[in-house]
Design goal:
By secondary structure, this protein is an alpha+beta fold. About 25% of the residues lie in helices and about 15% in strands. A hairpin with a 5-residue loop joins strand 1 (about 15-20) and strand 2.
C-alpha cells in the first residue's frame, strides 16, 4: 500500500496542518490525539465553545479551518 493511502484526507485535517502566520512564518499544529486537541482548544480559548464542528467528520473541516 502506498504511503498515505490509508488516510486520503490526512493533509486536510485542520488539527494536523501548517498555518501561515501574520509575520510570514508558519505554525505547525499536530493535535491528533484527543488530549492534545483539548489542550489546543484550551490555548485558543475555545474549550467551552458550544457548537464546534466534529473534528472527526471531514465534511466539517473547512468550517474548522475558517
Amino acid at each position: 500500500m502506498a504511503r498515505g493511502a490509508r488516510q486520503p484526507h490526512r493533509h486536510r485535517r485542520p488539527h494536523y496542518s501548517l498555518y501561515a502566520a501574520a509575520d510570514g512564518r508558519h505554525l505547525a499544529v499536530a493535535a491528533i490525539e484527543p488530549k492534545l486537541y483539548r489542550a489546543l482548544l484550551e490555548q485558543l480559548g475555545l474549550a467551552d465553545a458550544e457548537g464546534l464542528p466534529d473534528r472527526a467528520d471531514p465534511a466539517s473541516w473547512p468550517e474548522l479551518r475558517a
